[in-house]
Fold:
Amino acid sequence: MTIAPAARRGLALLIPVAAFLVLGSRVPHFLDLSNLLNVVRQSSIIGICAVGMTFVIIIQGIDLSLGGLLAFCPMISGMLMLAGVNLPASMAAGMLAGTAMGLFNGLMVSKLTVPAFITTLVVGQISQGLALIINGGSSIGAFPEGFVFIGNGALGGVPLSDLLLLVFLALGFFIQRFTPLGNHILALGGNETVLRQEGLSAARLQFFVFGFSGFCAAVSGLLLSAQLDTVHPTQGDAYQLDAIAACIIGGVDLAGGRGSVPMAVLGALIIGCLRNVLNLLGIHPFMQNVFIGSAIIVIVYLSGAIRRHSELATRGAL
Amino acid sequence: MSARATEDLQAGPAPGERREPPAQAPAAAGKGRARLAPGDLLNLIGRNVALFIFLTLVILASLFVNNFAALDNAVVILKQSAIPAIAVIGMTMVLMTGGIDLSLGYVVGLASIVSGIMANTWLWPAPAVLAAILALGLALGLCNGLITQFMRVPAFIATLGTGYVLYGLAQIVSQGSIINRLPKDFLAIGRTPMFGLPSAVFLALGVAVAFHLLISRTIYGRQLKAFGFGARTAALSGVPGARINVSVYAFCATLAALSGLLFTIRVNAAQPNMGGGVFTFEVVTAAIVGGTSLFGGVGSVANSILGVLSIKIIENCINLLGVSYHLYLAVQGAIILVAIIFGNLTNRRA
Amino acid sequence: MKRLLAVALGLGLCSTAAFAGAPYTIAFSLKTVTNDDFQKAIATSIQQAVEKAGDKFLLVTAGEETGVSIQVNQLEDLIAKKVDAIVLNPMDGKAVVPVLKKAQAAKIPVIVVDSSVEKGNEDLYISYVGTDNFNAGKVAGQRMVKELGGQGGVLIVRGANGSVAGDQRVDGFKAGIQGSGVQVVGEQPGNWTNSVAMQVTENMLQANKKVDGLFSASDVMLDGTLQAIGDADRTGIKILSVDGSKKAVDLVEQGAIVGTMAQFPAKMGAIAVENLLAVLDGKKAANSIPKVIDSGTMVYDKTNLAEARKWAF
Structure:
């Protein structure tokens, strides 16, 4: 029996949603609105990072500087805020710092042909080191009301963090789908010859992609600190690998040339849900690691298998 | 798996790769044997970046850092490098195929606590513990390889996932505790003094030589490099891709397990959080400083070990100079950055 | 005396719990119990006290490294899960303030143990039960001055970068030696692990040919530190540490270290649960409980091994 492609796609979406609702209902309090909003809020950090990371991975790069930037950028903003500089300026300074680091990565990759993983690894380490130096290893906190509100407040019942994630999701999606830039990024990742034929510069794309990733990391770090009302010098450690994992779970191909921002954000939400469910079920911390590890392997395996299956189907092999 | 075969043809040699010397060299040589053209020197450096970085560090440190150029300090550095050196060999092989093993640090932890339990609680004789730990590593590595190869899960996720699982297992097995005061025959595996150095150093040396020969002198090694350059091209030349892919993860985890065992012996404590993500990161960094490419096809055991030594020298100097622990990360990062930029610049010239 | 009181209260609560209805779920949120006998001891004592009262115990750990935000997320999830009470050992005293406000809004009572919450937020929790990490370090410093006769060079093996407890202990130690002829000649992070502690100690010994004393921010790093000292054939270094674990007490007995600053994790846990249950059962008003309860510090050295063995974990 043949199913129309549109219906096939609809079915493909229905199944995970149904699974989500069914499984979710078996976990007490999971489907509470307040909990779901919380999950989105907790995933927003990884989610915003994943938006920037998607473009980096598409051009066959990788950004390992997230961990350091997530601490360094808010540290700069935080110090300024505590010194009395107004909120917008302080935050802008932090975002500038992250973007600058990202652009530096872009410079190394395009002009010095240093592979992305090397430069981002080192920039990350240096940023982390600077975050420790700036305040002698201690955390800073007790920020102005306005900043804390960004991390913990809500508009119309929806936490600001969730809204911010939505904004970045939309931004990333827009860039990817509706700008020539987005197309060129996909081209750079998948088929460099097309780029050359059109006379486009790979360097400029690399600058953008890494700069944007640095920018996302900065925003993410600021959001994290707003949520915690603290900048802890090593607060970024936990997020480094999760952001990349989120992209991969969302189907972004590490080999480059393929991926979408919304799917990467979905990957971040999946990771957030996993952790939340394990906490709600009160699973022993030792077992949590076992579950998370197995779950991400299974998820990626299944989504990969499904994608390969549907590819074969569209090619008429089935 | 690397899909960059076409990229590599266009982009030129990756760091550390061999390349024919520029045409000017023979002409310069013809002018008079005694003179070396600048091109020659840069070319030489470019082909041996890891060695150059290492030698530069040694020279600078000897000149400017008190207490560095002393025999007992050299012994200390060798002792600190031995175990990461064993781990970096396996990681290099995995990186050469274009993959990565993020479970490495967690294999170390599991091996540590398991070896402690075997030696202390079950009272197994040392050779049995050694054999069992190697077998454990092999089994874990095969899992990684099978998941990556046959379930087609990208190595990043596969090994991240198994890493988490192993960490959880290590905690469960140990119930969070550590085991001290291990039996003497067990400790002797790594602590037997030989020529002023503990046996662990010579173990590391033996492993290094064995794998260097494996990679540079055997068909397996050639196939490994070919696989890293491009799976499709490799397949066309008859390289048994699946076997190579699975085998590197098996080797990596086995060597990681050996590292865990030796770490346990070194500090005389078996603990579930030995190694961990930090150690994985350290090993990958060392491999990168040694010129290994994350995209595959490029790497060498000798260079990666030089990478380990270079990093340990930097750490040693930072401690010797009494650099504040807060500056530590930034300073180390800056030095590595300079080393890598330099390596890249000279390599492009060559 | 306090112990008797706790037991009596426990028994009393047991009987009332039988009539109280559904058991309470009490969660303990902290960094980790892995390779941390001290935290493990707190957790065990809380678990025992909770289960003895017939209630349910939930262990929530953030994980190895500095997952400050992970702990915050877990606390939010605990609030969503509607647990009855929380015992908290915050990884960062400032970062938990926003989520404590949420717990307060959800009417979940909280007691803080071991590490404190940022000053000025006392209304967010019932009580803080612990010993001052700073004070523990200071007493160790003063002891070091005594051991070295007022003169000498010491090494410090710190905890992980950014660890609040570790930093406080070291800062306290430095305050303790201030004004004397004892100087810090080397100071590096041991990251709470033996392998790193061993490496930095090896390197610091290389840099300083004459070392008279060593302060370790925790017992968990002693194995590696002692190995390094042994391998370098250095003798006569006076070592002081913090925690008060069995391992350290054994080392004191063997003469390998001078002493360890004991804190009493078991007491912390017991006192915390005792007060929480009293509040939950309505037997005590939350604001009648003292804001700060000192669970005591003591140096375990060769002179009080018997006492040490009673409490060492």
